[in-house]
Design brief:
Length: about 350
């Protein structure tokens, strides 16, 4: 099954009239402008950084799909195991929260894991509507068209947009209790501080008694973690380098991608798995009207994939307005899906 994500349109280059500017000016839609601004802002800051949310263009989606199938990258398999083996326990825990509910999924993607849960809830006559939220219009169109066919009787309301905008929309649409799914260890792409702020904001969009089911990757043998972000086939490397390619394609930049190498790290003390791209030479890169200088060995911080202890998963809940209810694990205890209730 394909995973679709946001795709940003082409950059339009035109020569401005009525000005004495001789150089081409690049006009961008607001989406493109924020991509451009984020790229320039990130590369002008010290240390340089790019935001991992931009990994997922059409090429990035395909590479992530490949990663999910590669032997070293364990998180997707672990969470799929939890959703396929513990379906009844997860389903019962959500049903036990009260009456009818809206089941909201943040960043639904192809909804492969949630499909196990949806099927169980339908078979057990739970009264609920599924509201997948995704930034990609393709994802939402795809899910709205296919889910009612694969799961007859499922009520689906697809929401295409940013998480918090769409959460507000869902609250305006119904005052049923809410169960929010945030799977795939996506929370790991924030530092612990950012994740705390995100959870506080999410809590503000919920009512007491509403539930949150979060997928979190756990600390484990550091070699296992590092290998998952440094696969022998070089998919993770291409996944990172592709963001430079995307900047070239969409913002007309001049990155020579062969002049950067992938540097993955894992710190077993903090649980922070971080990846960098390292400039192999002194170089200058043109992006629109800007020139960015890189020293030899200078790094761009690309992504954090935070790993948690079980105690930390409770702590981050308690610190941000949630109370831990239950947790589920795969056989190896490499990954957890936790259920929290809003206080
Ligand atoms: C999609 C955020 C869960 O951080 O593990 C995979 C993305 N990055 N390999 C992760 C990713 C490098 C992934 N998530």
């Amino acid at each position: 099954m394909a995973v679709y994500r946001h795709q940003i349109g082409e950059v339009k280059t035109l020569y401005m009239k009525n000005t004495n500017q001789a150089t081409p000016t690049i006009m961008r839609s607001s989406k493109e402008a924020s991509f451009y601004d984020d790229v320039i802002g990130g590369l002008r800051s010290s240390p340089k950084r790019l935001h991992s949310k931009y990994f997922y263009d059409a090429v990035g989606d395909k590479l992530f799909q490949e990663l999910m199938n590669c032997s070293e990258y364990y998180p997707t398999r672990c969470e799929l195991e939890i959703f396929s083996e513990k379906t009844a326990n997860i389903g019962q825990a959500l049903i036990a929260g009260g009456d009818d509910f809206d089941l909201i999924e943040l960043g639904a993607g192809n909804a492969m894991k949630s499909t196990f849960l949806l099927k169980y809830l339908l078979e057990h006559k739970a009264d609920f509507t599924y509201l997948p939220i995704d930034i990609s219009a393709n994802v939402i169109a795809y899910l709205s068209a296919t889910l009612p066919q694969t799961l007859p009787g499922l009520q689906v309301t697809g929401l295409n947009g940013e998480y918090f905008d769409m959460l507000e929309k869902s609250s305006a649409m119904s005052n049923k209790r809410k169960v929010v799914l945030f799977l795939g260890s996506n929370i790991g792409n924030m530092s612990i501080i950012e994740a705390g702020a995100f959870l506080k904001r999410l809590r503000d969009h919920l009512n007491p008694g509403d539930m949150l089911l979060v997928g979190m990757d756990l600390k484990k043998n550091p070699k296992t973690i590092l290998a998952a972000y440094n696969d022998k086939g070089g998919i993770t490397k291409r996944f990172n380098i592709n963001l430079l390619g995307r900047i070239n394609r969409e913002l007309g930049a001049g990155f020579i991608t062969t002049q950067f190498e992938h540097y993955p790290t894992y710190d077993p003390e903090t649980g922070a798995c971080k990846s960098y791209l390292v400039s192999m030479v002194d170089q200058q890169v043109r992006i629109g009207d800007e020139t960015i200088r890189f020293l030899k060995d200078e790094c761009i911080f690309m992504e954090i994939s935070q790993k948690f202890t079980i105690a930390q998963t409770d702590q981050i809940a308690n610190n941000n307005g949630f109370k831990p209810v239950t947790r589920f694990f795969d056989q190896k205890k490499w990954f957890t899906d936790v259920i929290w209730v809003a206080e």
